[in-house]
């Protein structure tokens, strides 16, 4: 079994790879799926073979239109919902825009260009530090390969780790529930909404939860798991995650548990004001039950359910709920 490198050794390895790439060489990056070979875009790799040629690597989904400015905004929105992730996108024609200025010109023989925004942390770290754009020129690909039209329509060419259902779900409306640690309130809201959606004829809706002070990998609280199970939902596999810029950018609705959560997001990102609301439609906070009695968790679940009643109505999937009881705070 291979012994994982120490953080210092891994950092040194990344810097060594970046120096190699800047000097015009090739770097081999170890990923969870096997080694990936990358070179700088400035080495002008051969793009003429769309089947086995290089794959343009993006640091961030927002770079997509820098390389393909002719594409409609719908195409960029489509890829932003998949990336970072295990999806390689193929577009017709050669890379243009920023890529053309770097090449000098792009070969006319390039009938297709493939690009992806990797979520592997080792590749992402090299991309972040590289002074030039990078392309993948070797390595096993387990990503799903998707052909993307100029107007955002897509079809799977090769199904990999992301299925047709996974991709379609991400193209639907994305709802992100936000609390503090992503172990009690927001995962319970996520599980309860997923269960409700499974009971109706609903369009694809992506439901996610995150925390403003959350780390990665913590399980949901036992009380929240129990409450979800009683409602027919499942929280056993939940693992916490922080609210990232990418998640915030992909969200159509960001539903916060308290005014403090909402205000913290808007201080950092006032541009998303029209998408950030409280789950409680009346504007009340849903208090954190962590450390409390089971009765506190029950009260939290009831408050979440009232908010989900309104949300389901807003989605056109349920009748308008009755007015909330007065006097809550």
Automatic annotation (TrEMBL):
Documented EC number(s): 3.1.3.48
A GO term, aspect molecular function: protein tyrosine phosphatase activity
Residues covered by the Phosphotyrosine protein phosphatase I domain: 173-314
Keywords: Hydrolase, Protein phosphatase
Enzymatic reactions: O-phospho-L-tyrosyl-[protein] + H2O = L-tyrosyl-[protein] + phosphate
Catalytic class of the enzyme: hydrolase
CDD domains in UniProt: LMWPAP
Pfam families xrefs: LMWPc
Coiled coil: none
Keyword Protein transport: no
Keyword Hydrolase (UniProt): yes
Organism domain of life: Bacteria
Family: Belongs to the low molecular weight phosphotyrosine protein phosphatase family.
Protein name as it appears in the record: protein-tyrosine-phosphatase
Gene label: arsC_1
């Amino acid at each position: 079994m291979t012994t994982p490198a120490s953080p210092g050794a891994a950092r040194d390895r990344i810097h060594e790879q970046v120096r190699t790439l800047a000097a015009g060489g090739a770097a081999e990056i170890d990923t969870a799926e096997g080694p990936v070979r990358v070179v700088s875009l400035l080495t002008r790799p051969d793009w003429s073979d769309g089947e086995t040629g290089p794959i343009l690597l993006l640091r961030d989904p927002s770079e997509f239109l820098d390389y393909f400015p002719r594409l409609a905004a719908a195409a960029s929105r489509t890829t932003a919902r998949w990336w970072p992730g295990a999806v390689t996108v193929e577009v017709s024609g050669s890379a243009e825009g920023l890529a053309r200025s770097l090449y000098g010109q792009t070969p006319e023989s390039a009938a297709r260009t493939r690009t992806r925004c990797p979520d592997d942390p080792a590749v992402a770290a090299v991309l972040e530090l590289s002074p030039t754009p990078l392309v993948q020129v070797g390595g096993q690909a387990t990503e799903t390969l998707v052909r993307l039209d100029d107007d955002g329509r897509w079809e799977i060419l090769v199904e990999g780790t992301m299925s047709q259902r996974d991709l379609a779900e991400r193209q639907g409306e994305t709802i992100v529930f936000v609390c503090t640690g992503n172990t009690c309130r927001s995962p319970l809201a996520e599980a309860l909404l997923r269960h409700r959606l499974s009971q109706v004829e609903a369009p694809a809706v992506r439901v996610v939860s995150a925390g403003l002070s959350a780390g990665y990998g913590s399980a949901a609280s036992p009380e929240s798991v129990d409450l979800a199970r009683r409602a027919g939902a499942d929280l056993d596999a939940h693992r916490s995650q922080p609210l990232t810029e990418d998640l915030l950018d992909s969200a159509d609705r960001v539903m916060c548990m308290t005014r403090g959560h909402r205000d913290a997001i808007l201080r950092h990102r006032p541009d998303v004001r029209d998408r950030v609301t409280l789950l409680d439609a009346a504007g009340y906070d849903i208090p954190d039950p962590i450390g409390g009695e089971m009765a506190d968790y029950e009260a939290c679940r009831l408050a979440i359910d009232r908010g989900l009643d309104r949300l389901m109505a807003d989605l056109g999937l349920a009748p308008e709920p009755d007015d909330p009881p007065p006097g809550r705070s």
